[in-house]
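Hey, I'm writing a tutorial for new members on how sequence and structure tokens pair up, and I'd like a real worked example in the thread rather than a made-up one. If someone can provide the structure for the chain below, I'll link this post from the tutorial.
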Amino acid sequence: MYIKTTKPIQSIKTIMEWKRGANINDVKEQQHRNNKNKDIDNDRIIDNNNRRDNRDNRRDNRNYNRNNNNNRNNYNRDDNREINRIRRDAELKREEAKNKEFNESNFPELLKNKIKVAQEMKSEYLEKIKKTQEVDKGNNILRDPNNWRGHVWIGPKCVKMEKFSTEKEQQIKEYMNVASKNARTIILPFRKTYYSRNNIDWYESWEKTFTESELINMNNQLEREEHEDLNKRMNEGLERLYQKRKAESDQHFYETGELDEFAIAEKEHEEYEKWLEEFEKQFQEGYEDAGEISPDEDYDTDN
């Protein structure tokens, strides 16, 4: 017997394999069981997927919660640290205030020592500032161009004497009072002399106030200026003498009509200057015509 159906066959697995003597109801029941098993398999797959997704979600939630917990713990830990730090600072300040009050009330000498140390530190600081200002002021005086004429110092020159102790000064004063009444000659004690150019840096000699190069340059300029001044005064003296002799020679010629020795010398000097100028001119022309002259060759300038 053959089974005949109008529905298309979807899959070989959806129907039962044909058997001789098989009943159509058995085939439908078998197909129903296959469909049911298929649905069960699909449900099982979906359920497995859902369980897997649930596990992933739970794992993600655990990680998210763990991160949130860590963040909250870190935030709380930082807050606690800041609170503890503020609390410790407040406790230290209260403790310092108590100790300070206790020390000032029970040990007033500590407060005096503290004030004394602060005053000493302030005095030292002010002394350093004052010394620095003095050094800057002294350097400005030494570098001021108005205090120099080239390499020559024209600025201030300070001199001071050595100071003795108060006891020795009193002894000298008493000695002077007695000696001025009875003695004809008074011997004064020797005092060292110190020199300075800025009233700050003091030296035992004036030369030591300069550096070696400053002293050399200043001495060279002073020597050069001395020679120039000497030459200038000599030229001025000779010019005055020349004008005097010339005036006397002119007066003599005006009175006698004759030339005196000064006028004759002046005339000979003018003639010599003219001859020398002409000679140099001819010599230069001859040198240019002859070309280069050997340095070993002898010349007779009279011919």
